[in-house]
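Sample A.
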Amino acid sequence: MFSLKILIVEDDPVSALLLQRALEKNRHEILGIADSGEKALDILAENHADMVMMDINLAGELDGIKTTEIINEIYDVPVVYLSASSDAETLNKVVGTNPSAYVIKPFNIRELNMVIELAIYKDRKEKELQKLNNELEEKVKQRTIELYNANKELMKALEKEREINELKSRIVLNVSHGFKTPLTSILSSAQLLQLYAEKDHPFKPKITKHAFKIENSVRALNNLLTSVLFFGKADADKIEFKPKKMFLGAFVKEVLDTVSASKENDVKIKTELVNLPKVITSDSELLYQIFENLLSNSVKYSKDGQEVIFKLEYEGKKLVGTIEDKGIGIPEAEQGQLFERFFRAKNVGIVEGSGLGLSIVKKCIDVLKGQISFASDTKQGTTFKVEIPVS
């Protein structure tokens, strides 16, 4: 049994004396005996107590319950109530003051010792729990501050990244637009050279040959810049769906003329148009990007003498396009990367390209809320199928 410094608050001298002897017999130190709440508070103001044994029914302005409330507020000391009554009314009075224990008079020494031990044990556990709660609150507070600061840094980094992306997009757009004008001039000059070469000239074959090379190179550069401009807009979230009425026949002719003019091999395009309406409503620029890129790829990766089949049909308010070739195909191991930017399969050889075409196609189809699928074999070629809602 450990020794405690105990203050006895009891206005009955006989009960106080009996309690004092019982406590001293168990080697506890008695700080004093107070017969009122006021005296008890005076003693506690000058001495440290490990425990207070408190009679509930004290005479004077401060009874045991009021005195305990003050002790709970000012001093961190466990209080054990003493009372000759154990009725429900008395218990209801004391429960609000959170006593450490409750002893009914008359008490025996064994019961008293047990109550004291339980009271001290309860007090220690409550203090440990309070300490843990305080530590936890401090950790939560500290962690909250850390998370707040980390979030602030993250928001700054995101804002900085957004500014950099905006700057990058502006630079790409400005530089790309800057290239457009001189490329148009070069293309016009190349076409004029070809026109002049039609007249008698000793270097006519060479002029024609080099003018053709210039024209093709300019077209390739122009296509690359168009792709860069497209992704500049995509990264800036500026690609919008702008539907308008369009003549489908004229649209198909424009796509085929562009692809035919830029092809550098002897590959024929076989066109099948099925049940097409004269006019549809959709975004002609996005549709152009889809079919021009798919057809150009099929032609580019086919061999001389081969045929590309371009089938376009209208069914269920959808424009369904199929582009089938017998070209080099896409290796199975690389098909999962097909729509990634700058991806080019390992079997393309010396065929030039930017690796942007199919990623542009996928982005356009996503904006149009359509679907794209493909089947490819390095021995049989590739077939793309697109389904695009139109009205």
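Sample B, a different protein:
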Amino acid sequence: MEGKKLTLAITLTLGLTTVLNGSFVHAASVSELNKQQKELEQKKSSVISELNEASQKLEENKSNQAALSADMQKLDAEIQEATQKLDEINQQINQKNQEITNLENEIKQIEERIKKRDQLLKERARAMQANGTVNYLDVLLGSQSFTDFISRVTAVSTIMEADKSIIEEHKRDHKLLNENKLKIEQEKAQIETLKGQLESTKATLETKKAEKDQILAKLKEEQDSLEEHYMDLQEQQQLYANQEAAIKKAIELEQKRQAEAAKAQQREAAASGGGGSSAPAAPVTGGLFIRPTGGSITSGFGGRGSGHHFGIDIGGSAGDPVYAAASGVVYRSYYSSSYGNVVFITHYINGQTYDTIYAHLSSRSVNEGDVVQQGQYIGAKGTTGQSTGVHLHFELHVGKWNNAKSNAVDPRSYIHF
């Protein structure tokens, strides 16, 4: 239970008491109970007003959800479009990489041709240097006949044309090499640009995704908070309604008690001839509360671990009976995520309000609004809720139970265990 916050519950102050013969009402007056009932009505009205406000905020939240959902759909479409563009850019990059590979292969081939031609020209130059400069005019003039002259002219022309062709081709290859190098550099620059666009697109996608996650988280957080607050108010409203019903029952009981007391007084007066006054009721001298169940205390009241234990744990076996520690009115009997099956009872004894809480029950045999007598069976010991092992978690509050449990006292100060 015990370390978890429960919904704020303001307990009922009833005009109730316990007398030695076990009767439920003794000292509280109807007027006092009526006053408490009016206070409850005011509190209930305040809670209803808060409920209306919370309901309006929930509606606004739902409207915001619808708007945010539309934004998210738009964002999803943008992300899908950006993803498609990323795929296209990746295809372009792959294509450019292939083109660069092809250009690099061509450059290698051109370089190989240039290398071979360079070698050929070097060999021709070495041959000329070794044999002296060839004078093509001497070659022509040295012809033995006209036919020989024509042959020599043809041969010289062929050699000169071949040399010229080699040189021109060599120049073209160099030019082509430079052009291809420039082209590949431009292609690489385009690739770098595409990479930059890709990185920018990725960054944009990541930003949009982060924004979407933040929107979803904020939306969920706001929704959970509003729903929790609304549920708290609903539970408070239910508590006040239960308390109001309990007050009405307490007023009826008090009126009945006073009527019976008046009749008894009249009978006594008639029997004694109308003289004297009735003796005052005997005060309660002790035994305000009894043990709620058998078993030994397994965890006491006070500091425990990193927190504070606001009651005592009484061990035992599953199904052990649990009794009302004093007479009173059940104002809450339900299943709590922390207390498990739990029963809240309000008592009014000698002008003082007390609350007792019985938690982790395996079952409950009393309902909200029931009037119980001291020692009455109200449930069975168990280990429901936030509980480890079978036990009864029992709290005693001098005054109203509140969320801070500021009125909790050690039950052993009032009950002998």
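Observation for Sample B: The helical segments are 30-131, 136-141, 146-271.
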